[in-house]
């Protein structure tokens, strides 16, 4: 049963205005315990018309300029095997160098075979996510080297905090996938870290997950862990993409060996590649947003085309991550007007090529403050209007991605749920139009006690996790708690309520045996 009580009729002061004002009752008088999550947030669709920042001619200008970059300048492809695949597909490989140039016709021919939509499969089929079209998928923060909460402060990533963040990703339905390691657990040796981390993702969540492309063996281990977790054959997994990887170009205009190897291992097995240049205007890309978009597009098209050279029809996403730097310090800036423009323009480019679009919820704040909220709000505005399909770093990102924050995770969950509610189509059924209720009340009345209101008051409006709607007096008596206080409390309550999703004991035994075997073999060789 809900903790929310029916709304009381409003209290009024005496007609004379004398005497003490009565304390307002209901939701303003006491802090409400809000529901943490709801299954309705599992499958989101963005039916809004997409913003067209670029007119058709400007969009074509960026497209043609990026193809000119690939034809005339080319990309450095730092893996002989990849250069050979490109050469066989028709690219021009400069002998004795790593430079590869691509005819624009070849690029467009390859991209034409990339699927416009596909399904990313989870071990729990109810958690499968549809990628592309108008679908909207949120992934947790990934790859932060530090973690923070109010009590512990900022600290190096570790396994305990890693597991807590993974549990939070499972707990909230608005988070559809983990995005990678939410924080890098440096207390696990790098040779076996991927085994422990991926095993935790498979056990502590039943959602789709990610494997880093940091060498062939890590990819192979990730593929096997995903297969075991789903309890399927390698053949079935090849027809049902069950793992994704993020591929970042080394801007400007380079793809390094581990990234290229990751594309080969993942695309050859029909798994999901998210091709994402990291183009910061003024640093690794031209200082103009238009120039940075040209470079982003060239690098993205090269990577996407390569996935199709490896295997026609392999699932792939167009990733955009163009922002700017602070020209005074060189520090990356996020949630800026320039970032918003790049996000929306990136969506137009992805739709031109008919591939799903990955973007990110970003901010550069060092703590949970107004900057963290407004930069994330602007990011979410842009990616919603720009038609983002797959949103990396959707919850928990602070300090430009250097820190995974427990409290920011809760703030983001609240904001993501608000986005989901905003995208819910407006109910204009005869019942929602409420003519009978208007007739019952008539002029000068109120709707608090009508049957129409009483039948709907518990679910009529979104109930925020963090907003404190108590009046000033009651809030003061409670110690004047801030958003930081509420977020700190809520993440701990969520962890206390977390329940590990069911996993077939035979599957868990097979998974543990595989991880133990690979650890006994030494995992992956490192130089330390």
Please explain how this structure is put together:
With 528 residues, this protein is α/β, with parallel strands linked by helices. Strands 1-7-19-18-15-13-11-10 form an 8-stranded mixed β-sheet. Helix 11 runs parallel beside helix 12. The longest helix is centred in the middle third of the chain and has 22 residues. The radius of gyration is 25 Å and the shape is globular. The N and C termini lie far apart (56 Å).
How widely separated are the two ends? 56 Å
Unreliable stretches (pLDDT < 50, length at least 5) are 1-27
Number of DSSP E strands: 21
Spatial arrangement of strands, main beta sheet: 1-7-19-18-15-13-11-10
Mean pLDDT equals 93
Shape: globular
* Structural class by secondary-structure content: alpha/beta
Percent of sequence in beta strands: 5-15%
Figure out the total of helices. Answer: 18
Q: Briefly, what is this?
A:
The protein contains 18 helices and 21 strands. The chain has helices spanning 56-73, 80-89, 104-111, 159-171, 193-204, 216-230, 234-239, 257-267, 289-310, 337-353, 370-385, 406-423, 430-433, 435-441, 451-454, 472-477, 483-497, 505-520, and strands spanning 44-45, 75-77, 92-93, 99-101, 117-120, 129-132, 135-138, 146-149, 153-156, 209-210, 243-249, 254-255, 272-277, 280-281, 316-319, 323-325, 332-333, 357-360, 390-392, 397-398, 403-405. An 8-stranded mixed sheet has the order 1-7-19-18-15-13-11-10.
């Amino acid at each position: 049963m809900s903790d929310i009580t029916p709304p009381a009729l409003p209290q009024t002061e005496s007609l004379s205005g004398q005497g003490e004002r009565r304390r307002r009752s209901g939701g303003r008088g006491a802090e409400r315990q809000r529901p943490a999550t709801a299954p309705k947030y599992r499958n989101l669709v963005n039916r809004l018309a997409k913003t067209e920042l670029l007119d058709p001619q400007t969009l074509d200008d960026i497209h043609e300029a990026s193809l000119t970059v690939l034809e005339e300048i080319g990309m450095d492809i730092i893996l002989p095997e990849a250069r050979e695949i490109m050469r066989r597909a028709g690219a021009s490989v400069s002998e004795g160098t790593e430079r590869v140039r691509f005819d624009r016709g070849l690029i467009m021919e390859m991209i034409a075979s990339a699927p416009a939509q596909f399904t990313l499969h989870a071990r729990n089929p109810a958690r499968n996510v549809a990628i592309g079209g108008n679908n909207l998928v949120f992934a947790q923060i990934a790859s932060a080297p530090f973690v923070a909460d109010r009590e512990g402060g900022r600290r190096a990533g570790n396994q305990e905090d890693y597991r807590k963040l993974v549990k939070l990703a499972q707990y909230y339905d608005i988070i559809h996938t983990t995005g990678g390691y939410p924080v890098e657990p440096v207390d696990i040796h790098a040779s076996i870290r991927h085994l422990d981390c991926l095993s935790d993702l498979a056990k502590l969540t039943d959602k789709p997950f990610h494997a880093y492309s940091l060498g062939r063996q890590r990819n192979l281990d990730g593929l096997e862990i995903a297969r075991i977790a789903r309890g399927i054959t390698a053949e079935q997994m090849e027809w049902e993409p069950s793992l994704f990887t993020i591929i970042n170009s080394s801007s400007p205009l380079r793809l390094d060996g581990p990234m290229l190897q990751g594309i080969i291992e993942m695309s050859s097995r029909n798994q999901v590649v998210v091709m994402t240049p990291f183009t910061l205007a003024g640093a690794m890309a031209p200082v103009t947003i238009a120039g940075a978009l040209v470079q982003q597009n060239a690098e993205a098209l090269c990577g996407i085309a390569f996935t199709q050279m490896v295997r026609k029809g392999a699932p792939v996403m167009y990733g955009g991550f163009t922002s700017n730097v602070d020209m005074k310090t060189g520090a990356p800036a996020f949630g800026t007007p320039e970032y918003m423009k790049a996000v929306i323009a990136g969506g137009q480019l992805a739709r031109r090529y008919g591939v799903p679009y990955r973007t990110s919820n970003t901010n550069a704040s060092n703590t949970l403050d107004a900057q963290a909220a407004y930069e994330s709000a602007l990011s979410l505005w842009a990616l919603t209007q720009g038609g983002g399909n797959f949103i990396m770093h959707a919850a928990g990102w602070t300090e430009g991605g250097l820190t995974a924050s427990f409290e920011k995770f809760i703030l983001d969950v609240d904001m993501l749920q608000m986005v989901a509610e905003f995208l819910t189509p407006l109910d204009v059924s005869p019942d929602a139009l409420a003519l009978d209720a208007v007739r019952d009340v008539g002029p000068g009345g109120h709707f608090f006690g009508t049957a129409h209101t009483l039948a709907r008051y518990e679910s009529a409006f979104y109930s925020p996790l963090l907003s404190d709607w108590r009046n000033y007096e009651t809030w003061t008596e409670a110690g004047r708690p801030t958003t930081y206080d509420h977020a700190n409390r809520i993440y701990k309550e969520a962890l206390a309520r977390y329940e590990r999703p069911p996993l077939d004991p035979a599957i868990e035994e097979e998974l543990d045996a595989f991880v133990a075997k690979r650890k006994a073999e030494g995992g992956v060789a490192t130089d330390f």
